[in-house]
Queue: 2 jobs
Job 1
Amino acid sequence: MHVPDGFLDAPVSVATGAVAAAAVAVSLRGARRELEERTAPLAGLVAAFVFAVQMLNFPVGAGTSGHLLGGALAAVLVGPFTAVLCLSVVLLTQALLFADGGLTALGTNITLMGVVTVVVAHLVFHGLVRVLPRGRRTVGVATFTAAFLSVPCSAIAFTGLYAIGGTADVSLGRVFAAMTGVHLLIGLGEAAITTATVGAVLAVRPDLVRAAAGLTRPALEIRGGATVPAPASVPAPAAGPAAVGAARPARALRPLWLTGVAVTLVCAAFVSFYASADPDGLERVATEEGIAEEAEEHGLADSPLAAYGVKDVDNERLSVGLAGAAGAALTLAVGSGVFVAVRRRATAPCPGPERATGTVRAEPEKV
């Protein structure tokens, strides 16, 4: 659901740009509390995985496709503030390298896909886990519901923005109905992908699923050589999921990280070639309602990787694969760098009182 340039007028584009900038600024501060030194690179992996899976458009019927938005997935795995940063890195990479999503609409896309989806998913997930029994089933139900609802909510938010600053004279009722209907279907795909991914991580490293801290427990445990039922609940660690895995050596993260990188590259470099070629939900609605006529050509449409292909490479399979691999690798590098820097800034020693206030302590007067 990448909004191109020209769909929204300048005031709305500027306003959403300001919202996106404020959200990123707040998230940079909030992510310091969510990230932990040894797991910060995993947040970069989440960003790269979202980029890769967004290339995998899946059909939803009637000549329309959809793709993962990723806000719910990132929010459950790494927390809401870090999730906003993950999606911002992904959308920035897509806009600047692949001409996907307008340049003047970058703030709109970050607001819709990187803020609305994350906030909705975070609120829905934690609202459900507060009223449902603790356990992995609850995590799965909450994840599925949060991911499912985040997609139509983002579509409704777009319709609201279009009602304020849309550039085409169209029936807003028709746009609302069409956007909501198709994105409910896309939401099912989002929910399935998100739940499967979170479930896979829970199976091997539940301590790395931030939103599930204190919510999961083993069915059995060993006490005194006997296998007995585990306690009914496990209290959440005071410092979040990072505290649960603090006793594990850093090397224990390497197999998971390498596996995640491999899966990401396979999706971006190989599976992406088989993605549905049908227009996604926004493109379909824009075409049917006459909004697409207002789209402007992307300012970087001639870039070497525009439209997820390598310029001057005639073999389509190779072109898409190289572009996907390059995009995933760059997203991984940039995301990991950002999150490591954010975490190190959070752990940097604070200046002393004299340096912080800029004052010099006077020496006592000698008598």
Note: The first helix runs from residue 10 to 34.
Job 2
Amino acid sequence: MLPFKLVYSDDYYLPIGAHVFPAEKYRRIHQRLIETRVAEASDFLNPRPASDEDVMLVHTPDYVKKLKTGTLSPREELVMEIPYSPELVHAFWLAAGGSILAADCALKDGIACNIGGGFHHAFPDHGEGFCMIHDVAIAIRRMQRDGKLGRAMTVDCDVHQGNGTAAIFASKRMSAGALPSDSGPALGSSAKTNLGAVNDVFTISLHQENNYPLSKPPSTIDVNLPDQTGDDEYLGWLDNALSSGLRAFAPELMCYIAGADPYREDQLGGLALTMEGLKKRDRLVFEVSKARQIPIMVTFAGGYARAVEDTVQIHCNTIAAAVEVFWGK
């Protein structure tokens, strides 16, 4: 039995037909973790869907109504880039419920992982880039509403910038006086910081600069990586971003969006990380979380490798890295 919980449901499957997003990956990750004995059945918790009230902690009532009644405009569906169906709404509500459960477990146990979620392109009033609603933001706001959490940090390591995350958490400002005068060493020309506008959620995004989305709302720290960035350079930028962020902000929960798409064989990415480099990335985030005693909730976000098996393996490696760091195995 693992010392932390994995949240999963067979109903995470997204009914989107033939698509670059590998909708079957969640079931295959679950199966692989069991088959390789990284986890056993008792390590998994089955989530319940988020309530509409939970979803509206982040998303507008009008947008939620459109999703629940199937009244999106053709343009709204086009921008979302996945075909609307009531079954798809259920899958996204369930993923959000999974992230709520994972956040709650992380606050109790120090770490938990939602084998799904990470839909970081969703905005309060619309979906984008395969993302209908923003499960991580919903989980943070639910924990805050319940009085279980004050300050959170998102660490987004998907190849695409977390534009929805940046937009959602840009509204509630914290005064610059709440930040230390010395925010650490400069991050360099590839990084942009917005420390004067930090709120109750500090957002970090490492992503390929020349990639989706075209318009990138500012995160607290954005690391805009050049094409074909490899393992060593990526890990250096990540270490620097985490160090700088944690000098400026003391989160009570870290939300790690562990995208598989910085992989060098990804169809929608242009970075050059190896499978080994991605696991080192995961270990670095987990080691920082453990050393600083910051609870961490993990979601998986994107992954579009030419071989779906590679995406599945990268996500399974994230769980293996967590086991190694938090259990010493």
Note: The chain has a mean pLDDT of 92.
